Amino acid sequence: PDAPEGHHGYGQYRETYKKVDGQWLIDSVLLTRFWMDPLESWTPAETVTPSDTKSAPKTTNGE
């Protein structure tokens, strides 16, 4: 089957955070795209399903 087109995207992310049980968590994310450039001759990476991924380590900001 045909692979989806690859691209370089340019934009801005805006996040809001909230503190839950002493941990800062992302509450919302807004992506505003300014521009998208298609990539010619793009080959997609191997498909990874959620069961194949590991959780990212938790980080704290000292609070």
Automatic annotation (TrEMBL):
InterPro entries: NTF2-like_dom_sf. Residues 44-63 have a biased composition (Polar residues). It comes from the Bacteria. Residues 42-63 are annotated as: Disordered. This is Nuclear transport factor 2 family protein. It comes from Micromonospora musae.
